[in-house]
Amino acid sequence: MNTIEYLMENLTPVAKYDDFLIDLKIKNHMALTNITKGVATRSDIDTLIPMANIVEALYRMGFGRDYVTEVHHGIEALYAVGKRGSQSGRFILYAKEMKALNILMELHDAQMEVITVKDMERAFKIVESEYKQRKMRPIVERQK
Predict the structure, then answer these.
(1) Residue 67 has pLDDT above 80, yes or no
(2) Closest CA to 112 of 46, 71, 54
(3) pTM of the model
(4) Are the CB atoms for 48 and 27 separated by under 8 Å?
(5) To 5 degrees, how large is the angle CA 135–CA 89–CA 107?
(6) CA atoms 82, 80, 129, 63: torsion sign
(7) What is the radius of gyration, based on Cα positions, of the chain?
(8) Share of the chain above pLDDT 70, in %
(9) Given this model, what pLDDT does residue 3 score?
(10) Residue 134 — left, alpha, or beta (φ > 0 → left; ψ -120 to 50 → alpha)?
């Protein structure tokens, strides 16, 4: 691989990848729309979980550091609705959870506008590492 091309690619803002970013936003916002309408499926939750994980990883990397409370509330809201939905089969939000998830999505969108490809790779590595180390809190506990 050409070292200069690799360096330039890593320094490229994610926002420059219009097609990728538009597809990502459509997928995430559709899942959020479904959950706010009360018609979400497990697939919608499975779309929102990685979004929340990336928001938290980027937050810990310094992107959105001023939003500690909002990140925490958004992740807790997703956990709560996911847990209730896994038990009942319906993913229904409370008003405060809807607000928290909307803010989390806004933060995600803002982060995507300012990070580089290298930042995104680092965030993915953080999420992947914590998943492998079982540091993530599962919505549904595995049966032993």
Answers:
(1) yes
(2) 54
(3) 0.85
(4) no
(5) 50
(6) positive
(7) 16
(8) 90
(9) 65
(10) left
CA-CA distance, 63 to 58, in Å (whole number)? Answer: 5
Alpha-carbon gap, residue 88 to 11, rounded angstroms: 45
50-81 as b/e, with b when 16 or more CB fall inside 10 Å?
ebbbbbbbbbeeebbeebeebbebbbebbbbb
Inter-axis angle of helices 18-37 and 42-60, to 10 degrees?
120
Tell me, what amino acid is at 60? R
Contact 53, 120 (CB under 8 A): no
Alpha-carbon span 41 to 86, nearest angstrom: 10
Contact yes or no for 74/107 (Cβ under 8 A): yes
